[in-house]
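Researcher: Please generate the 3D structure of the following complex. Treat every line as part of one assembly.
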Amino acid sequence: MLKRIDIFMCTWRAFGVRFKIGLLIVSMFFIFGFIVTVFCPIDTAELSNYMKNMKSSSEHLLGTNAVGQDIFWQLLMSIKNSLIIGVLTATFATLLALLVGISSGFIGGKTERVVMFLCDTIIVIPMLPILIMIASLLKGRASIYIISLILIFFNWPGPARQTRSLTLSIREREFINTALFSGESKLKIIVCEIMPHIIPWAMANIINTILVAIAAESSMAVLGLSSASLNTLGTMIYQARQYQALLLGNWNWIGAPVVAMMVMFIGLFFTFTGYNEYISRKRGL
Amino acid sequence: MKLRKYFAIRFLIWALTIWLGVSIVVFLVRIMPSDPIETMINRLNNVSGGSTMPESKIAAQREMFRVQFGLVGTLWQQYWESMRNLLTFNFGPSFSSYPTEVSFLIGRAMPYTIGLLLGTSLISWVLGNAIGLFVGLNPRKWYSKTLETVSMCVYPTPYFIMALILLILFCYLNSFFPLTADLPNYFSFTPYYFKKLFNSFFLPASSMIVLGCGWWIISMKSLSNSTSEEDFVHYARLKGLKNRTISYSYVFKNCILSQVTALALQLGGIFCGAMMVEVMFGIPGIGGLLQMAVVQSDYNLMLSIITISIVAVATATLIVDLIYPLLDPRIRYS
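Model: Done. Output below.
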């Protein structure tokens, strides 16, 4: 008898080394961001909790910054907020893309052409300048949710296009015709016959969009255009640059977010490419 | 006749795309809850040194600015007015450095951006594709694996991380290069000018090249790797062709097509990519101008730069779509 754990182990072995390394890094970040921060003893946004510019010690693992905040806890909160932005954007953008892509691919005709034209237009609009413009118009009042909403707007058209072409290729296959002729409803065909083929691809897209969203938000923040009251990895770097952390010799302050961000991106990218590799091997390509 | 229809449809889509993109931007500015005119009047009156103007004069000034910046009439009239101005590249004066024309500011900044980004894009394209082809053709060698891992780590990191690391290493720890670009105001053919130019542009250019290479290596490697597994390459090998012939005529020519497309699209988008590098290194180009426009709520300048970049991206896509069938005989206009 095959137990559930055996099935899990079989799948686990089928993944490559790259995927495992990536997943390990990403899950570390999730644990640090969402579980360890539960035990955070202080409000990290509050100023002058401690002495300024302290070195690392057992009490302050990464020391404190020039406005008296604990760098370690600030870093964890930043990771949490960045991840929330990434995951929110990725989930909803992918869902929207699936909805639009599958329905327009399956229905076809005029609706399809109009929707795809809309997608093409949004793809062409450069994201960063508009993001920055909206942020400046909101004058630092943007919350996590508004930032995510804007990112979702720019990140659904690309995947929607790809979902559509995937759906088109699946629709031409024999088993869809069989299902149609045996009188299945269209909804059931979409859910039961087409979705299973698209889900793996959607998972990969979610991972990739997390990366893109976090990168976009932090680019904005480093230019000083994200919300000032929000702790994200980008605003942390911006703050460190504003207070000249380098000239003060406070390496932890600027080094911690830079290193964290690099490791996080490499982890996400490894997960993404490793997972893609696994999918294409499973399909026998 | 099929060809003519294809061209017509493609041009129509190009025009519609630009129109829709610019419309979104124009509306976005109009519905936002802050008034650019008030900001500007406040700034002008602060600059004039504390002497407060009488209320009637301020009102007259406000009226004048409203007319000058096309903010009179209903939303609909404003929309058509600004669409016409933007699409004919008649940008009007800048808010923040009034009364300088926006087109003058853009014209002054353009050479830096185009020089820096065009140069680095082309260099990293050539370099990255050469390395990628090499890695893809010898995938089992240790140096290939090292190069691939390095580019896998370089590619996903956002640009500013790379810039920060370079700034820390070469500007803070060792002062090889200046922290922000310092360029003489006027161009001249003197060694002094070129020395300044080199000093200011070396770090930004090299960081752009390294990051750009990452993507080209990864994509070229996977392309050439999968092409060299194809049946026709096997056939060529069995026929006993020279290795060099196989890698040039069989693998390289097939892979370079999609890379040319990607390059064209990237060149269309250079104005968006310019922002980060120019702000980080203090280069007085389009991106720096855009950031200044955003910080000082200079809507005319902002709208103009974004319009130019939308037109550039759309046009690059159009050119790629029209040229592609010429390069690749397998694709027909349809």
